[in-house]
Amino acid sequence: MFQKGLPQLAAFSFSFIQIKSFKQTTIFAAMQMRWLAIASAIILMIACFFPWVSIESKNIVVSGVDATGTSFGKPGYMHFLLSGIAVILLLIPKNMATRIAIFISALNAAWAIRNFIVIGLCQGGVCPVKHTALYVVMFASFGLLLFNLFTSTKENIK
């Protein structure tokens, strides 16, 4: 009887140690997501300066901050504003700030979808050539949203 109980006790203790270390690892990873979100916002802001599309028939190169010759405006400035607000809110370790940052990041992702559709659209039989920076803006916007969703604050951990 003693031999049957001993392995079960050892297995229970070993299982308890694994759960504890997994929980600590999960808490650490959730707190580090904030820095990945900030890195994603910085990548997004940098990608706004690179060419998004080029319209070869008119010799026009459109970026997030320079869209001369088109009626697109300057769509990168909205990314700057939304990403900047999200980064500031991510640096505040409160639950409400994290929730607002998630909402702002969702707006940023929606703006990236709008830019991808409007700027990359064929108009009048002229299709622009999409460059890598347009895709980087899309992935960085969704990365910002995804990392914000998994960010945890110290208020949540007790």
What's the helix and strand layout?
Elements: H1 2-47, E1 51-55, E2 60-63, H2 76-90, H3 95-119, E3 129-130, H4 132-149
Antiparallel strand pairs: 1-2, 1-3
Helix pairs in contact: 1-2, 1-4, 2-3, 3-4
What does this molecule look like?
The chain is mainly alpha-helical and 158 residues long. It is built from four helices and three strands; from the N terminus they run αββααβα. Strands 2-1-3 form a three-stranded antiparallel β-sheet. A hairpin with a 4-residue loop joins strand 1 and strand 2 (60-63). Helix 3 runs antiparallel to helix 4. The longest helix has 46 residues, at 2-47. It is elongated, with a radius of gyration of 23 Å.
In short:
Helices cover 66% and strands 7% of the residues. It is mainly alpha-helical and 158 residues long. The protein is elongated, with a radius of gyration of 23 Å.
H and E order: HEEHHEH
What is the overall pLDDT average?
83
Low-confidence stretches: 9-20
Overall geometry: elongated
**Structural class by SSE content:** mainly alpha
Reading side by side through the largest sheet, how are the strands ordered? 2-1-3
Largest sheet: 3 strands, antiparallel
- In what range is the share of β-strand residues? 5-15%
What is the C-alpha radius of gyration, as a whole number of Å?
A: 23 Å
Main features:
158 residues; mainly alpha
